Amino acid sequence: MVNVGVLGATGMVGQRFIQLLDKHPDFEITALAASSRSAGKKYEDATTWYLDDAMSDSVKDIIVSETEPSSVGNDVEILFSALPNGHAAIVEPKFAEKFVVASNASVMRIEKDVPLVVPEVNPEFLDIIDVQQKNRGWDGFIVTNPNCCAIPLSLTLKPIYDNYDINRVYVSTMQAVSGAGYNGVPSMAIVDNLVPYIAEEEEKLEEETLHLLGNLNDLGVTPAKFGLTTSCHRVAVIDGHTEAVFVELDQDIDIDDIKKNIANFKSVPQELDLYSAPKNPVIVREEDNRPQPRMDRNADGGMAVTVGRIRKDSAFDNSFKYVLMGHNTVRGAAGTSILNAELINKTIL
Amino acid sequence: MVNVGVLGATGMVGQRFIQLLDKHPDFEITALAASSRSAGKKYEDATTWYLDDAMSDSVKDIIVSETEPSSVGNDVEILFSALPNGHAAIVEPKFAEKFVVASNASVMRIEKDVPLVVPEVNPEFLDIIDVQQKNRGWDGFIVTNPNCCAIPLSLTLKPIYDNYDINRVYVSTMQAVSGAGYNGVPSMAIVDNLVPYIAEEEEKLEEETLHLLGNLNDLGVTPAKFGLTTSCHRVAVIDGHTEAVFVELDQDIDIDDIKKNIANFKSVPQELDLYSAPKNPVIVREEDNRPQPRMDRNADGGMAVTVGRIRKDSAFDNSFKYVLMGHNTVRGAAGTSILNAELINKTIL
Amino acid sequence: MVNVGVLGATGMVGQRFIQLLDKHPDFEITALAASSRSAGKKYEDATTWYLDDAMSDSVKDIIVSETEPSSVGNDVEILFSALPNGHAAIVEPKFAEKFVVASNASVMRIEKDVPLVVPEVNPEFLDIIDVQQKNRGWDGFIVTNPNCCAIPLSLTLKPIYDNYDINRVYVSTMQAVSGAGYNGVPSMAIVDNLVPYIAEEEEKLEEETLHLLGNLNDLGVTPAKFGLTTSCHRVAVIDGHTEAVFVELDQDIDIDDIKKNIANFKSVPQELDLYSAPKNPVIVREEDNRPQPRMDRNADGGMAVTVGRIRKDSAFDNSFKYVLMGHNTVRGAAGTSILNAELINKTIL
Amino acid sequence: MVNVGVLGATGMVGQRFIQLLDKHPDFEITALAASSRSAGKKYEDATTWYLDDAMSDSVKDIIVSETEPSSVGNDVEILFSALPNGHAAIVEPKFAEKFVVASNASVMRIEKDVPLVVPEVNPEFLDIIDVQQKNRGWDGFIVTNPNCCAIPLSLTLKPIYDNYDINRVYVSTMQAVSGAGYNGVPSMAIVDNLVPYIAEEEEKLEEETLHLLGNLNDLGVTPAKFGLTTSCHRVAVIDGHTEAVFVELDQDIDIDDIKKNIANFKSVPQELDLYSAPKNPVIVREEDNRPQPRMDRNADGGMAVTVGRIRKDSAFDNSFKYVLMGHNTVRGAAGTSILNAELINKTIL
């Protein structure tokens, strides 16, 4: 068993980490770090638990530690970070001197020597870790997972990108409120309403998706070359981000072939049979009215993205469109971070 | 005063007609027709009223008539039709033998000699009425308004189409539940959820929008030539359809110029100062987080479409994107039908 | 293994039966009956699945049978009925000639020789079965479970009723939309709204709760004698009925003693260790803001009722109040029906 | 015209004050005070407007002033306070040295010489103003309106209390999210959920309702003597608090007589024909499924409370029950405060 800890353990993504790590066969939570206000208390007493599943008994009595490398214990190997960006920027590098940091924060994603990875999409980017450790003189390192919309989008685009020449992609999102944190979206803003804007979301979604599908070389990552534009919106859904995707290829469309490539897509986590890896990263459904957040977000424990309505787009040559939906705090955040750690544990540590 | 009637008067769009016609300076409701089950009763007793505003006293005592030309009274000149398609196909032509029928049903929109009109977009299409009357030997005629998403989309595209060369348009909708009728969307389907499909909606939205922006000539209507693709979704909003729109032009973009053209757009209803015409058909807002259904759907009595987030799209050359929102049962249905009738009343009758 | 079937298998409560029976150690589904429209098809093809958890593979290929005793197979012993009342009234007695019928329908609950049972509350009422079989000359019999609000209310009142003298009970409910069936509550009726009325609900809730707490004797059931009044309301919640309960005793209040009696309540299903029996039928929480439907409805697989805010009521002598919440289609319907069958299987069959 | 100002003008209740005062025939807004962060800016620039109706042009250019008596201008006579309690406790007394303060804050309601008034219920309590001015040496004074649930409850109980002997009242509320302020209820807490607790709400509702129905005498106010208990809950409704009410009288019930007394109830504001006074403070509806927040909250501009389901309660002697619903930020807050000011303006100033 590898001892692991969670930074930002009392927040919503922190709780999702704890829930997903419960009964994990390889990782055991031994450290939970949070703000000074919580430090010193039992986790159960420090935390307002937000998830539908009850808090696991195994973490209730863990004493919350300060968010400092010296506080989490020497026996910890991996720290999952659910810290907000400001704090992550300061603290994650300190932890990385000694520990593996698998981070959901976006602040370090832009560093050239920090791998931004979705294990099914670009596992080879973990090779940058050597550079990172050399550059910075760290014994540990930081690995990051992308934005909650970029993860499911890249998972569905990967089998397309690998098999065809993508020319253009247009994406319009309908995102769940949990993506903004527990207090992020007031009910006054979303009941009988929607909000057509999420700060910095379109930038991240566009940049990170092209990065994930890009090419690692000596100069760093060369992003994928096709055009990608997005429009991001918040809707009255608790969990599950939905994206309407329009794709133009540089070649003729065989819609059945495309469906088959998406449905049959498997990658390294499936080959290595990693614990959190879904059987299929993307589930293709044939019903007209799927995917739906409430019906599909828990597919394969929330780690599979569901795609539906894959159809030819007669408005443009060589074009098709589809709708995807993935659990934003499982596949779109904590789950992918854990899958990264499982891949690292199996192949690097 | 012109005497008018409403067909399908007890349903949701029928009620919206009645609400919008209340205190109308030129139209007076003298006939309300519905199914045989309702016929013979006072409107107040025949109807479960669904709108937030209370039923107007002026219609409460009207005796509901059968949906037959002989039942609505000879003094009626215009009939607004909120009938479902199946019924509309049979009944509207009968009424058109004698009356002006302003219909919200989609079934007659495909007839070559039936004008499909948004008064600000293609008022000249009313010229087909002559052909229709000659073809069919009718004293009256049918005029139709488009689909609830095509109306606001065409209103925002019109000033773009008139001033630039549109190459491509991609649209993703987030539509209110009222669009499906009172019983159309079960709460089980939409609370904490969304449905990424609306039957036949994408087809109508694409075809009708290109038709509205098309060109009337001797052979009928030649649709606009640019590519238009859509993806339609239902969300947990009572009233107000939102659409994320991506536009590619065939020329350079001057985003301020585009904004100005949209914001300053006025057309025939504004020139004629029609009663239901909004001051501006499209209101441009500068805030990042607008338009929002609950905040903007009642702009100018629900007759103005609100547009926000008009921004350059750096992913593609000559491209920009925006978000629009319009009240789907006012501007997107009954309100446009009434505006059509006002235009006809002023220019034809 | 006992072979079981589900009547009304394609509807929402029918689906809940199937979900809860999946992997059951003693019951195996071998028959699924539905309307003639579905009969002859594979269950998977006949059904629009409404539940968040995916349909179990084990039922997908079962051929749906007609809702007739001759169609479900001779090897079936127990039939769970999720039929609507009208159909149940006709069909359930026919099935009971030969099979055990555990019914969620309300129509047979009023029959004097048909036991209305919540296993933790009044298991002894199963003794009426002998009378029923004798009266009607049946080899099988019918057992019913109560209304979805009466089940959790009776579960929380039972330990109070057994330990104190109840004088008055006032109940105000906030009920989930799933209680009305998939199409029961239009989204137009409940988004940004609530409906303060549910047909026949108050009558059932009052009558059945007093019946469950009543006394079985030679003349039938003598209902409990205290006054019970209710007001029933529908709110925008998918699953989980909440009830605000005000109780007046005929004796002094010791609020800690009351809490203890509710929290420690166990009964026959717990003693017999029945498979679907929750460890504690009622979970008492101390947080001010609990129970909440989304957080607590799945407690102990949805079979435990959660109670919070047990507090002295200073407005009246000898009074206290509390809030309860239970999953309305699990504990409040299919789950209690299955628990009845488990009790019958262990003690009678 | 009387010049008036609003304290806490940028918050949600402050905005409601401004909306309701727009086009007021007797009051003209000349001062808008808010926090130092806003002071000095134009109101339009200082405020994120939350209401569906657009901000009135007449206030957009008013320069926001500091919340100090010296800043609001000498020509102001009445200040409406939408301040939070902590600030109100400090600032309102300072303003009252010189101005009339009509406050929606709860902090001063408990002061013996500060009238807590609903104009239709206890207008005579304004007589305490003299005592207040004498006690405190103020030229102005403070008048307060009650809690958002106590206002509609007292309005419906008043005609009952005046005509019968009330023995007991049990109330269970279902309250809108706007009552907690714009950021008060996170969407994560209320979508597909409800919260069975609102801090201090039950205490205020019970105490203030009995106070309003009480008796003013030389010793102050003697509260009404009947027992009143409440349970308060938050549901997914934007505006409109609903209350299920159970009443026991000390005498026989004539349900038609009770209905008539409630429906015909009029009081001083109706007699004086005050501008904001609804024609009937309480509207009685006969439909089973009313009142509903979305349908009834705007009745008579949001100033009328709607009552439905008035019915005999067969569980107890001399008992009946009903459901009420009122707009919580109009009738339940700013609207009653303005009505208080209108009454004062007509009878005292």
TrEMBL record, chains A, B, C, D:
<dbReference type="GO" id="GO:0051287">
    <property type="term" value="F:NAD binding"/>
</dbReference>
<feature type="binding site">
    <location>
        <position position="201"/>
    </location>
    <ligand>
        <name>substrate</name>
    </ligand>
</feature>
<feature type="binding site">
    <location>
        <position position="234"/>
    </location>
    <ligand>
        <name>substrate</name>
    </ligand>
</feature>
<dbReference type="GO" id="GO:0071266">
    <property type="term" value="P:'de novo' L-methionine biosynthetic process"/>
</dbReference>
<dbReference type="GO" id="GO:0004073">
    <property type="term" value="F:aspartate-semialdehyde dehydrogenase activity"/>
</dbReference>
<dbReference type="GO" id="GO:0009089">
    <property type="term" value="P:lysine biosynthetic process via diaminopimelate"/>
</dbReference>
<keyword id="KW-0220">Diaminopimelate biosynthesis</keyword>
<keyword id="KW-0457">Lysine biosynthesis</keyword>
<dbReference type="InterPro" id="IPR036291">
    <property type="entry name" value="NAD(P)-bd_dom_sf"/>
</dbReference>
<comment type="pathway">
    <text>Amino-acid biosynthesis; L-threonine biosynthesis; L-threonine from L-aspartate: step 2/5.</text>
</comment>
<feature type="binding site">
    <location>
        <position position="204"/>
    </location>
    <ligand>
        <name>phosphate</name>
    </ligand>
</feature>
<dbReference type="Pfam" id="PF01118">
    <property type="entry name" value="Semialdhyde_dh"/>
</dbReference>
<dbReference type="GO" id="GO:0046983">
    <property type="term" value="F:protein dimerization activity"/>
</dbReference>
<feature type="binding site">
    <location>
        <begin position="37"/>
        <end position="38"/>
    </location>
    <ligand>
        <name>NADP(+)</name>
    </ligand>
</feature>
<dbReference type="GO" id="GO:0009088">
    <property type="term" value="P:threonine biosynthetic process"/>
</dbReference>
<feature type="binding site">
    <location>
        <position position="175"/>
    </location>
    <ligand>
        <name>substrate</name>
    </ligand>
</feature>
<dbReference type="InterPro" id="IPR012280">
    <property type="entry name" value="Semialdhyde_DH_dimer_dom"/>
</dbReference>
<feature type="binding site">
    <location>
        <begin position="178"/>
        <end position="179"/>
    </location>
    <ligand>
        <name>NADP(+)</name>
    </ligand>
</feature>
<keyword id="KW-0791">Threonine biosynthesis</keyword>
<comment type="subunit">
    <text>Homodimer.</text>
</comment>
<keyword id="KW-0486">Methionine biosynthesis</keyword>
<feature type="binding site">
    <location>
        <position position="109"/>
    </location>
    <ligand>
        <name>phosphate</name>
    </ligand>
</feature>
<protein>
    <recommendedName>
        <fullName>Aspartate-semialdehyde dehydrogenase</fullName>
        <ecNumber>1.2.1.11</ecNumber>
    </recommendedName>
</protein>
<keyword id="KW-0521">NADP</keyword>
<dbReference type="InterPro" id="IPR000534">
    <property type="entry name" value="Semialdehyde_DH_NAD-bd"/>
</dbReference>
<dbReference type="InterPro" id="IPR012080">
    <property type="entry name" value="Asp_semialdehyde_DH"/>
</dbReference>
<feature type="active site" description="Acyl-thioester intermediate">
    <location>
        <position position="148"/>
    </location>
</feature>
<keyword id="KW-0560">Oxidoreductase</keyword>
<dbReference type="Pfam" id="PF02774">
    <property type="entry name" value="Semialdhyde_dhC"/>
</dbReference>
<dbReference type="InterPro" id="IPR005676">
    <property type="entry name" value="Asp_semi-ald_DH_pep-lack"/>
</dbReference>
<comment type="similarity">
    <text>Belongs to the aspartate-semialdehyde dehydrogenase family.</text>
</comment>
<feature type="active site" description="Proton acceptor">
    <location>
        <position position="241"/>
    </location>
</feature>
<comment type="function">
    <text>Catalyzes the NADPH-dependent formation of L-aspartate-semialdehyde (L-ASA) by the reductive dephosphorylation of L-aspartyl-4-phosphate.</text>
</comment>
<dbReference type="GO" id="GO:0050661">
    <property type="term" value="F:NADP binding"/>
</dbReference>
<feature type="domain" description="Semialdehyde dehydrogenase NAD-binding">
    <location>
        <begin position="3"/>
        <end position="129"/>
    </location>
</feature>
<dbReference type="InterPro" id="IPR051823">
    <property type="entry name" value="ASADH-related"/>
</dbReference>
<feature type="binding site">
    <location>
        <begin position="328"/>
        <end position="329"/>
    </location>
    <ligand>
        <name>NADP(+)</name>
    </ligand>
</feature>
<comment type="pathway">
    <text>Amino-acid biosynthesis; L-lysine biosynthesis via DAP pathway; (S)-tetrahydrodipicolinate from L-aspartate: step 2/4.</text>
</comment>
<dbReference type="GO" id="GO:0019877">
    <property type="term" value="P:diaminopimelate biosynthetic process"/>
</dbReference>
<feature type="binding site">
    <location>
        <begin position="10"/>
        <end position="13"/>
    </location>
    <ligand>
        <name>NADP(+)</name>
    </ligand>
</feature>
<keyword id="KW-0028">Amino-acid biosynthesis</keyword>
